[in-house]
Amino acid sequence: MKLSPSVEESESYLKKLFAEQSDFQSKRLFIGESEFRLFYFDTLIDSGVVQEFILKPLLQRPEAKIQDVVSILDYAETDQFEDAAQAIIYGKTVMQRDGEDKLYLLGADLKKERSINIPTNERVLRGANEAFIENLDTNLNLMRKLINSTDFIVKTYTLGRISQTKVAVMYLKSIATPAIVEELDRRLQSIDIDYVEVPGFLDELIREKKYSLFPQLLITERPDRARSYLMEGKVVVAGAGSPDTLILPVSFWSFFQSADDYQIGWLLGSIFRLLRICCFFITIGLPGLYVAVSAFNSQLLPINFVNTLQSSLKYVAFPPVFEALAMMLLLEILREATIRLASPVGQTIGVVGGIVIGTVVVQSNLVSNTMVIVAALTGLASFIVPSYEMSSAMRLLSYPALLLSAQFGLFGLAFFFVMVCIHLCHLDTMGYPYYTPPFSFGDAKDTLIRAPIWNLRGRPADTAPGNRIRLRNPRGWKR
After folding, report:
1. What is the DSSP string of 309-332?
2. Which of 106, 128, 152 delimits the end of a domain?
3. Residue 404 has what pLDDT?
4. Same domain, 245 and 267
5. Is 70 exceeded by the pLDDT of residue 81?
6. Is the pLDDT at 100 greater than 80, yes or no?
7. What is the residue range of 18's domain?
């Protein structure tokens, strides 16, 4: 709607629009020979900023132009009521001088945010200890401090008809593949929804395979990790109201990488990464392997181990598949209770509950000693993976593996892993393969192992085809 030069008409329109908003304010001011109106939400503005940088300069120079007087960087003008209403909702102060057919949008919003803390979900022993927070501007500030380059591009979107959530897409222009940026832009522009939660909603709305358990976008709260993926040609998506960012496209192997891998020696980093990948198979297959060798294929084990296993199962009332299911469900219940309760209480429940319940179920002959060990090792193996989403997928996949093993033994377990591998080969993210078997040393340099930094000369060919050279003369001191 076109603006009227009359401040009374503007006030009437905005008061009608925000009639049910108890915190909407309209202030009438006479400064010099001019009449002004200020429109704002008093819960969103910083009254000190309004007083110091808007009203005080106007009192000193009442007849001067507004843009020459107010000392606020966030300054804009409009002649549309819709733009003014949107600015008020975002916490700006809207001003109009009587007789002028334009509104001044002045950024005087109240800044309330928590301080930058250490990461809570991605703790490391070496490296940076800064984490993103819920304020998008602060998160962009952290990223710009880490990447001081004109190639660093930030594009902002507003998603959600009602929520009007701000989302920022970050990439390096000289490294990222334009096709990825264009495809992401197309998908974000096509989202038509009332409100958006970042990262959960965006993850589901832009991923290819909607029903796959495996995470197809990597979520991180660490600015340094986001920077490292930007340097590989990937794209980072951040949103207002969330301390987590999305990274895409990523491969299956990205979920086993940790920031610690690059802060310690390459040999230690490779060993720890191999350990995480081994824990992937342990989490999914160990309960099923226990059931298979207990009920079907005990002849594959040494005779002493078979005797020990059978003696532990002698007085157990339930078959191995039921005791395995019971212990896995109990582990999930303890885990959820530990997360949902207050931190001191949750730690106590996790430790004491695990010890007490484990002891009771063994003494009551509901499960065997071996099954308690299997359940504990399975739980610990799932926690070693740096990605919460991949860890959760691994634990859920252990249930169908267990049921197939209970029906068909080791053949059922092997069949399940073949099906998982086929499913991984069918996945892709933003049109790029999700899983590439690392059968060559070139593919395994930063997947199965972490090769020395001086040997990681090239960026991934799929996400950075135009600028693959990462290192030119890394050890130039050595002649």
Report:
1. HHHHHTT-SS-HHHHHHHHHHHHH
2. 106
3. 93
4. no
5. yes
6. yes
7. 7-106
